[in-house]
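Hello Y.,

Per our agreement to keep a running log of every chain we model this quarter, I'm adding this entry. I've kept the format consistent with earlier entries: sequence first, then predicted structure.
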Amino acid sequence: MDKQALLLFSLLANPRQMVGLDLQTWDVFIRQARNADLLGRVYELVAEHQLFDDVPLPVRPHLLSARRVARRHSAMVRFELGNLLGILTKLETPIVVLKGAAYVLAGLPAAAGRVFSDIDLMVAKDRLDEAEKLLKVQAWIASANSYDDKYYRKWMHELPPLQHLKRHTLLDLHHAILPQTARLKPNSAELFTAAVPVDGYPNAFVLCPEDMVLHSATHLFQDDEFKHGARDLVDLDSLLRHFAKDEAFWPRLVQRGEVMGLSRPLYYALRFCQRLLATPVPESAMAQAARPARPLAFCMDKLFERALVADHPLCVDRFTGLAKWLLYIRSHYLRMPFHLLLPHLFHKAFISPINARREEKKAENRPTIEGLIAENKAK
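Predicted structure for the entry above:
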């Protein structure tokens, strides 16, 4: 990858390089950061390193606007979490807050400047139906088509995405961190056992530091979606730097990865945080992580470095589309055995688009209130 494609990571890893940048480079940097949902993070780094006076005047409004957006997102997440945790108190069971919302609730540096597309919660599998019923009463509704609804409920680690009817907030309600059919099978009961309570919320928990890193790594390097890949890698970098203030963190992390069967995604997390963001990962931790064989490691380097850069035209090359497609196939291979995977991919590639077009035509032909009124007037 050329330097321009890696500009975002380079400047996030070393914010003092922003001093003296010309406006053309700032323009590229701002565009990449905005596309990666990291412009708020850029503002926070500029503020942390006291570099605002070195930022050119035309650039400052972009950073200040990103700060306002990120803080608005944070406030909205806190509001929605308060609402959701209040609804789910009737379960009288721990509710584990995951990913970005957990960073906000736990007051972690990874929350600084972050924006959110949804909220992720996890409850025990045997309480999932009850939790969904409580949420449905409060206008949280799943809107998946019949095939996707069945697919989620039978095979996945979460319900179909729920959306609030009025506020349109999205919620993913998990019972595990990987699908039931996945090759890697971390023990969900272990996650609940090690979870840490959150002050001020009697039923709210977040994953312990090691599990938080492992979940973030698993989400990024086992999934098929890289739209937020750069942001998720920056999250991992922030988590590792913060938790590493405890010297015992690294051996605990490596050991926990082995216990949970997540050493391979942990290796990729450490590898690419170190490679792209200069995260100070001890050699002992790298040596103990489950590194793949050299030929596979070489191939994965080439694939992930293309998938993880910002989703921006200046960050892609002629192989980027192929890399993302191969990682998409890989994610499904890791997620489902072939006898389930092939019919699923066939349905998503051919049947789902046909059904979607049918629904669109039905919607087009469905009479509207305005049309019925006009027809009655004509009569």
